[in-house]
Specification:
globular; disordered N terminus; alpha/beta; 23% strand; 8 strands
């Protein structure tokens, strides 16, 4: 039987190229230093919140991240590895009706209760230093994370992306000089810039930061439109602790 050597070589070369692309694609994915541990968090009304807890493997501060309401907890996957490398214990969870958490979308009261349950879980982790806590939210997550800070004075840093806080939370920021706020929004994304500015400019903490970026991205997608935003956030959070 005559073997077409040229055909064999071409086929082998094509296979090698496909494998190389697959390997390169895998290398581009974001893997935290320690694998994510999926956990279940039960709320006061017995809803199971699906969450992911990441640890740097040593004692350090904790940060709870609340996703925006067109995404799920994995919206934070590109930021989380950098936070872990900076020594943070990170917890992100799927809000009701999003991702792997069942149920309909929660109202503000239930959303805050769910954030409370997640916050309690994070603080219960053995290596989380209870007096060194932060919270972050994007879009609808801004409301819950800022309201959570109002209830817990051990939260001394807030990360807020493209969302609004209610009057009570804004008043709390103004009355709490020990609470530092990093707020970011895009200048052509509706009322985002004005909403974030209303929170940050009320802060009396000397290291609070207002970052208005170009474009119309809303929330976490700003990481893709402003390459400096993510490292600036990590550097700012690390400096607070």
């Amino acid at each position: 039987m005559r073997i077409d050597v040229t055909h064999v070589i071409r086929k082998a070369t094509l296979t090698a190229i496909v494998l190389s692309v697959a390997v390169l694609g895998a290398c581009r994915r974001h893997y935290p230093p320690d694998p994510a541990h999926d956990v279940d968090i039960v709320t006061s009304d017995f809803v199971v919140l699906k969450a992911s807890y990441y640890s740097p493997g040593k004692p350090g501060p904790g940060i709870l991240l609340l996703h925006q309401c067109n995404m799920d907890r994995h919206a934070w996957d590109t930021l989380t590895p950098d936070l872990i490398r900076a020594g943070f214990h990170v917890l992100a969870f799927d809000q009701r009706g999003f991702g792997e958490t069942a149920g309909g979308r929660a109202d503000d009261e239930k959303a805050l209760g769910d954030a409370e349950a997640a916050y309690d879980y994070l603080r219960s982790r053995p290596d989380v230093e209870k007096g060194r806590m932060a919270a972050g939210g994007a879009s609808c997550g801004v409301s819950s994370s800022s309201a959570l800070a109002r209830r817990h004075s051990d939260i001394t840093a807030l990360l807020l992306l493209s969302g609004s806080a209610n009057d009570a939370s804004i008043a709390y920021v103004r009355a709490s000089p020990s609470l530092a706020v990093f707020g970011a929004a895009a200048d052509h994304s509706g009322s985002d810039a004005a909403d974030i500015r209303a929170v940050v400019t009320g802060s009396h903490h000397p290291q609070s930061v207002l970052r208005i970026v170009g474009g119309s991205a809303h929330g976490v997608p700003m990481f893709d439109t402003d390459a400096d935003l993510k490292p600036s956030i990590v550097k700012w959070l690390a400096a607070r602790f």
